[in-house]
Amino acid sequence: MSYNVALNFEDGVTRFINCNGFESVVDAAYRQGINIPMDCREGACATCKCRVESGDYSLGDYIEDALSQDEADSGYALACQMRPTSDCVVLIPTESQACGTKQESFVTRIKQVRALSGSTFALELQAESLKSLEFLPGQYANIHVPGEAHHHRAYSFSSMTAKGDTVTFLIRNVPGGLMSGFLSDRAEPGGEIEMKGPFGSFYLRPIARPILMLAGGTGLAPFLAMLDKIVAAGGSPHPIHLIYGVNTDRDIVESERLDGFTRAIRNFTFDICVVDVNSDHPNKGYVTHHIKPAQLCEGDVDIYLCGPPPMVEAVSAYLRDNNVSAASFHFEKFTPSIA
Ligand code: FES
């Protein structure tokens, strides 16, 4: 039996390794060219201490000085002793370069660019090498802007198909933006684009309680990948509610896909809201206007938030000012760059 282990490094790089059930995470990583810092390799020095964010595993042999009971109970483990018994996500508290690894790079071709609305593109990239790409739902890639040396943009994967040769992104059409200009004027099917990834700590954790997802604009993208993953996993044991806020009616995209998720995930619901006072949409105002007490489950909720910085900061301030508690709070800001 072998398991997929995502190693998340301190600099946001994620690498996946295969662990065969008999070998430790350190040994499996080493076999695949990743040198997790270690010293004794016997569970005594704690050099390899890591935190296991999800998955099942045995802790192996170690001494209390290296790993206390409290640490073990909180999800810490020693990578030289830990043996996964399921797929796992493991946080390695060091930079990827220090482990002799880095993000993967892919040379892809444009399969399709579609204007989903006046303000949003859907970009689909294709490459045989993408069949080996793995990422956690919610993570992002850096995409090089063709013809613009040293310029890249970070975009969240907006779908999650198993071992496919394509990846998709939602890209905001920023007036004067380098990527927007490329997609509007020069992008052709078959054109080459380099992509690096995956990156990021904004990804779906194990679903242990109700989830509230808050999306602003193209901050919807990581949630689409998360929902794909939940569909593939056979649904959610807990309710999931998404509130998707946009500025104007024309900014609404992927609503049919969201409808599809309500059919595919029994306890998934969503609301869309529009800031523009002249909107025809029944829900007006900001995302925070549409959070209902029942969705906060008296604090027994995991909240995920993704959008442009002002939206993320406003929602965070709202939650703080209203003493909203949550079992966990994960957020990601994206910045639409021009230069
Ligand atoms: Fe010493 Fe793992 S390397 S405890």
From TrEMBL:
CDD domains: BenDO_FAD_NAD (cd06209), fer2 (cd00207). InterPro entries: 2Fe-2S_ferredoxin-like_sf, 2Fe-2S_ferredoxin-type, 2Fe2S_fd_BS, BenC-like_FAD_NAD-bd, Beta-grasp_dom_sf, Cbr1-like_FAD-bd_dom, FAD-bd_FR_type, Flavoprot_Pyr_Nucl_cyt_Rdtase. Its EC number is 1.18.1.-. One of its GO terms (molecular function) is 2 iron, 2 sulfur cluster binding. Keywords: 2Fe-2S, Iron, Iron-sulfur, Metal-binding, Oxidoreductase. Residues 103-205 form the FAD-binding FR-type domain. Pfam families: FAD_binding_6 (PF00970), Fer2 (PF00111), NAD_binding_1 (PF00175). SUPFAM superfamilies: 2Fe-2S ferredoxin-like (SSF54292), Ferredoxin reductase-like, C-terminal NADP-linked domain (SSF52343), Riboflavin synthase domain-like (SSF63380). Residues 3-96 form the 2Fe-2S ferredoxin-type domain. Its cofactor is FAD; [2Fe-2S] cluster. PANTHER family: NADH OXIDOREDUCTASE HCR (PTHR47354), PROTEIN RFBI (PTHR47354:SF5). This is Benzoate/toluate 1,2-dioxygenase reductase subunit. It comes from Paraburkholderia caledonica.
